[in-house]
UniProtKB/TrEMBL annotation:
Compositionally biased spans, kind Basic residues: 1-12
Domain F-box: 41-96
Region (Disordered): 1-41
Name the UniProt record assigns to this protein: F-box domain-containing protein
Name of a matching Pfam family: F-box-like
Top-level taxon of origin: Eukaryota
Lineage of producing organism: Eukaryota, Viridiplantae, Streptophyta, Embryophyta, Tracheophyta
Transmembrane segments: none
InterPro entries registered for this protein in UniProt: AT5G49610-like_b-prop, F-box-like_dom_sf, F-box_dom
Length: 411
């Protein structure tokens, strides 16, 4: 039944009111749709802005990159949570056969191609398959995601070799030719006495572009000289720095190690059987000598330069079954500007190596420290001639054999 109402004075018609019987009494009736509540916000979106970064920092690098692709907001937050230093994915190295025991210091002369050992299962499996000519080169440096290789075939020490630079992540490569002869004015004077020592990666302009700088190190007339090559837009431009006349190389340059060490923004070249190292400041490109602690054990100067986990320069040694780590410091206990930060007897650690001689003298002859782990700076690489190459964790005091599936050592 519809009830009509009259028109109100000064107003419009009122809307008719209809009495609707229950839906069950109407034939072919349709029930009204259920009420829809407004959607709730995602749980993470209701969190304060200062909480989301704390969550993102606990994600692995792979998961953090995935989260950055979700939306613009997450991308901005993830960008602030990226590690300041590039993450360590693994190691490139050349496999070698285990060396013979002491008194017969021989290595297998066979050249093996460089391989990649991932740090853990989540790391990508990188390889050098994209550069087939890499088998004709030897790995010399790895820095900021790039590899620097020099030819396997020996070249005259008075000339610069070609350099191959590879980016395993993007499969980019660059072959750098030696510096032109006019790079140094009146170069024929120095070429008679020039001795090429080695090369290293200096810097990288952008992680996604093949734009970088390399440095070569030579001895010209008894003084060190740095050659810097800048690669960009598929071109390499060389410049030679002035001779470091304040640094005198008064010994045969043959004793320089061809591979340098990156630490605290500088490069260090060890000198075999010497109580000093050559230092190159990468900011000023100036050479100088650096003396290690005079109290280092042993007489053959088996020590290595490195960097501590908190970013300080250090010297490590494992001579006389004693592991020592010295850092730069002053005070009454300073030794050539170094102080002992860590010291431990590792004779019992050596006892866990099968077949290693128990005699202290024979152990001294066969054991030497090779390097400080660049990615995990609390670990050392130790070579035991005739018994393999090991990684030593100074926190847990455990040795781990570095061997490939074919039984060869990492080198």
């Amino acid at each position: 039944m519809v009830r009509k109402t009259g028109k109100k004075r000064g107003g419009s018609k009122t809307k008719p009111q209809t009495e609707t019987p229950p839906s069950s009494s109407l034939p072919n009736s349709v029930s009204p749709p259920p009420s829809v509540e407004p959607p709730e916000e995602a749980p993470i979106d209701v969190l304060p802005l200062d909480v989301i970064p704390n969550i993102f920092r606990r994600l692995s690098l792979v998961d953090l990159l995935r989260a950055a692709l979700a939306c613009h907001r997450w991308c901005r937050v993830a960008a602030r949570c990226l590690p300041r230093a590039a993450p360590l994915l693994g190691y490139f190295f050349h496999p070698v056969k285990t060396a013979t025991p002491p008194h017969i210091h021989q290595r297998d002369p066979t050249r093996y191609d460089a391989v990649f050992a991932p740090l853990d299962a989540s790391s990508p499996r990188l390889s050098l398959d994209f550069a087939p000519d890499a088998s004709r080169f030897q790995l010399h440096d790895c820095h900021q995601g790039l590899l620097l290789l020099e030819p396997n075939v020996p070249t005259p020490r008075s000339t610069h070799p070609r350099l191959l630079v590879l980016d395993p992540a993007t499969h980019r490569r660059a072959l750098l030719r030696p510096p032109p002869r006019d790079t140094v004015p009146d170069d024929h004077r120095w070429r008679r006495s020039r001795y090429y020592v080695g090369s290293a990666l200096l810097s990288r302009a952008h992680p996604s572009k093949l734009c970088f700088e390399v440095v070569c190190f030579t001895i010209d007339g008894g003084h060190p000289r740095a050659w810097v090559g800048s690669f960009d837009n598929d071109q390499c431009r060389w410049r030679a720095l002035p001779l470091a006349e304040h640094v005198l190389v008064d010994f045969d340059p043959y004793w320089f190690e061809t591979r340098g060490v990156h630490a605290v923004g500088k490069m260090y070249w060890h000198i075999c059987n010497s109580s000093r190292v050559l230092e190159l400041d990468l900011a000023t490109l100036r050479f100088s000598y650096l003396l290690p602690p005079a109290a280092l054990p042993g007489h053959h100067f088996k020590y290595r330069m490195g960097e501590t986990p908190d970013g300080r320069l250090c010297v490590v040694t494992v001579e006389n079954q004693l592991m020592q780590r010295w850092v730069r410091g002053g005070g009454d206990t300073s030794d050539n500007g170094w102080v002992v930060e860590q010291e431990m007897d590792i004779s019992k650690v050596y006892d866990t190596v099968p077949g290693l001689p128990k005699d202290r003298i024979r152990r001294k002859q066969s054991i030497m420290v090779m390097d400080v782990d660049v990615g995990q700076k609390w670990k050392l690489f130790i070579e035991m001639l005739g018994y393999g190459t090991f990684s030593f964790d100074s926190n847990t005091r455990k040795l781990h054999r570095l061997a490939t599936k074919g039984g060869k050592d990492s080198f």
